[in-house]
From TrEMBL:
Biased composition annotated in UniProt, kind: Low complexity: 121-158
Protein name: TIGR03749 family integrating conjugative element protein
Domain of life: Bacteria
Region (Disordered), start-end ranges: 112-158
Biological source species: Halomonas mongoliensis
Signal peptide (from-to): 1-20
Keywords: Signal
Keyword Oxidoreductase: no
Pfam families: DUF3438
């Protein structure tokens, strides 16, 4: 099996010319983010991250956290006092601290987090100039500070690798509110030509893998696959090296699967392939059986 390359997901600067966004600057000090109760708040980051929750927030009945395409989707189901959450960059290992709290009536405005150490003067100016400015213009300034506001979408697409764009688009299409899905020129949803269950994708784990949808752009295809833990006793950390097939990248929406029957027993993996869909990248069942016989 070829070693998989984890796609480094760029920040998802979501679409909507008239949508407001609150800009926060990360300067090595915790960022205070109040959450409304029973309403989702979106936090856009400049990196693909993993989230570490304190015990008080680890209960999915208190807080739901989803991470996809460089974006955190946070939803509090009840009010709680300030709790510190550790967010780590998957690629660099850098840590960002969020002080989360939840209360009735808190703002649900989207948040864009900018790393002040990396922000150029042009980018910082674009970020701080107006909290209600065009998201498309902010995307252009963030990805190419010297670019003009016009043509921001095309410039962002040029600067960001297609696998990253596709993975982000698929995650948003499945899980983000419709109004926040970033338009991606040329992308199309395509038939998967897959069985209902993919038994050879993760043969070493007791999981059910169910294809959800596929999208294609410029010869690249991303397929979203739902993973469900069938073991009621064990939880599993997810490692892309366990996946069987010829993939360019694999991105898990969550880092682990909890035991079956819990809220976190299901996640989604986004698999990117080149020159064909997932049906061509999977190892045929016959080859898997032969390999197992050879080992035994």
């Amino acid at each position: 099996m070829k070693r998989l390359i984890l796609a480094c997901l760029a920040s998802a600067v979501l679409a909507g010319d008239a949508l407001a966004v609150e800009v926060m600057h990360w300067e090595r000090r915790p960022l205070a983010i109040p959450l409304p109760v029973d309403e989702e708040r979106i936090v856009t980051l400049d990196r693909n991250v993993r989230v570490g929750l304190p015990p008080a927030l680890a209960n999915p009945e208190v807080l739901r956290v989803q991470s996809a395409g460089g974006v955190l989707y946070l939803k509090a189901f009840e009010a709680f006092e300030t709790q510190r959450v550790r967010v780590q960059d998957v690629e660099s290992g850098d840590v960002l601290l969020l002080d989360l709290s939840a209360r009735e009536g808190a703002s649900s405005e989207e948040i864009l987090v900018v790393d002040s150490r990396e922000a150029s003067p042009a980018r910082a100016s674009a970020s701080t100039g107006s909290s209600t400015g065009s998201r498309g213009a902010q995307a252009s300034e963030a990805s190419r500070p010297s670019a003009q506001a016009s043509g921001g979408e095309a410039q962002q697409a040029t600067a960001t690798p297609v696998p990253v764009l596709l993975t982000r688009h698929a995650a948003q299409s499945l899980y983000a509110p419709q109004r926040t899905i970033e338009p991606l020129r040329g992308v199309s949803r395509v038939p998967m030509r897959l069985p209902e269950s993919l038994g050879t994708l993760l043969p070493s784990l007791p999981v059910t893998a169910t294809p959800l949808g596929a999208w294609r752009l410029d010869g690249w295809t991303v397929t979203a696959v739902k993973l469900e833990n069938n073991d009621r006793q064990r939880a599993f950390e997810l490692d892309p090296r366990w996946l069987q097939g010829d993939f360019y990248s694999a991105t898990f929406m969550h880092p682990y699967l909890a035991p079956r029957g819990s809220v976190e027993d299901t996640t989604t993996v986004f698999l990117v392939t080149r020159r064909g869909g997932l049906d061509r990248a999977l190892i045929p069942l016959e080859e898997t059986d032969k390999a197992e016989e050879g080992v035994s």
